[in-house]
Amino acid sequence: MADAIRLPLELFYEREARHPNKTYMVQPLGGGQLLELSWADVGEQARRAANWLRSRELPPCSRIAIISKNCAHWIITDLAIWMAGHVSVPLYPNLTADSMGQVLEHSEAALAFIGKLDDWASMAPGLPQGLPTVSLPLHPHGEFDYRWDDLQRSAPIQDDPKPAANQLATIIYTSGTTGMPKGVMHNFSNFGFAASNAITLFGVGEDDRLISYLPLCHVAERMFVELASIYAGQTIFFAESLDTFLADLKRARPTVMFGVPRIWTKFQMGVYSKMPAQKLDRLLRLPIIGHFIGRKVLAGLGLDAIRYALSGAAPVPETLLNWYRRLGMEIQEVYGMTENCGYSHVCRPGKFKQGWIGQNNPGVEVRIAEDGEVQVRSGATMQGYYKDPLKTAEALTDDGFLRTGDKGEQDAEGNLRLTGRIKEIFKTSKGKYVAPAPIENRIGEHSRIEQVCVVGDGLPQPIALCVLSDVGRQEAANDNRDELESSLKALLAEVNGCLDHHEQLQGLVLVKDVWAVENGFLTPTLKIKRAVIEGTYGGRFAEWQQRSEAVLWHD
């Protein structure tokens, strides 16, 4: 089957030759300036950089790091690394110096490209001694061995290198909620299988527009932006910064967009900050005006041209899906992992089933193991973890199925529903097991709760630690605190009414901290680090349990 798969560089060369002058990337440079790059521009810069890489005479398949936020030259660098016969190792742009050093040492990186970063000064000490560095056009202040301009003085390569399908393309280090990240190995066939099937599934093409803002080092953005653009010919618009994101979004007016639940919630909170939720909901219920208002809200967000809106990485609250549906935009949930290129399940348009993700993608086999674990197998399944055969054997069954670690079930139509993480299930002091994820999903449907973590290992009953949204914090600080607390008590009663007795929450604890990547509470893909949360607040669990308050404000 691998022989029939079209591989990334092969597709890139075809597009480079067929429509060289078509705009491929739009990069903000600051101050309102934009850099537009055509397919020919991207190809020429990648070919020059590839020639420079060849001149260094590194061993074939050397690991070369890309340390940068999203930008046009992130993708150009990736193409150049592949053209030169090497393996790209993308790193999250917000790693600590120690974490960056761990990945660079473990991957035995021979070179590091340094691009757009917010705090390079704190990361730089993590560079292994003697590791050569190249600064990309949008680079931070610092000392680097080479500049992108140096590479561009090389003549472009004249050949069209085509790595074998089974050649290693990249090592993606998972963000990991605990311990050392694992290096997921994907070859060109894995990328080709996932990308070619995905663009057929969604029917995207050369007229579509993408906005790149989630980390390109993460598999979702790598597939939905970089690989999809190569296979479908889409134009990529890059976001400049958090402050300019809305303007960047309106400039792009994407037709296809991938987001994580927190992003879709942020959009909703931004709308509510300008118009009270009750007023908007009342307007949306009006027969004719409601449609007009919904389109206006989407246009204000830059989302009025969306054909496909996708959400992954965590479950989306049903109330949020319904809110966007009332605006006139369907968000389809997707399910996948770094270990299978993010290519596993997606809800098909018009086939939404409340509480379920959707069906398996073309070419994906699914089975539910005896312990309830979801296991999948396809041409997108990783080659294993780099230099870690033991963990590879733990992750892959003898017959090639990926153990996802998620518990789930399927209905007669093949729709998948996740019911929790196998390793996250805890036991209360009463000896009863509790799966936190489904409870967290219910709590997270409240419009004023942004993040939630249900804990209870060794406690008589679970409790939910909650982080309020910006709007919720504002209400808590003014005269609306009592109203907010009443709505949260009603939420607790409603959620507990749907749970078995041993699962019912003792109460909600509203923590004062904001959980973020920067303070270590979240992974770079915005998943909560349960161990960090439990370590931070664990000393108060028994006290909070004894106080037995429905809503408790963490002082």
Describe the 3D structure:
- By secondary structure, the chain is of the alpha/beta class.
- The chain folds into 3 domains: 2-232, Rossmann fold, CATH 3.40.50; 261-411, ANL, N-terminal domain (Rossmann fold), CATH 3.40.50; 424-553, GMP Synthetase, Chain A, domain 3 (2-Layer Sandwich).
- Helix content is 35%, strand content 21%.
- The protein is built from 19 helices and 27 strands.
- Strands 4-3-5-6-7 form a 5-stranded parallel beta sheet, sandwiched between helices. Strands 12-13-14-15-16 form a 5-stranded mixed beta sheet.
- Strand 22 and strand 23 (433-434) form a beta hairpin.
- The radius of gyration is 24 Å and the shape is globular.
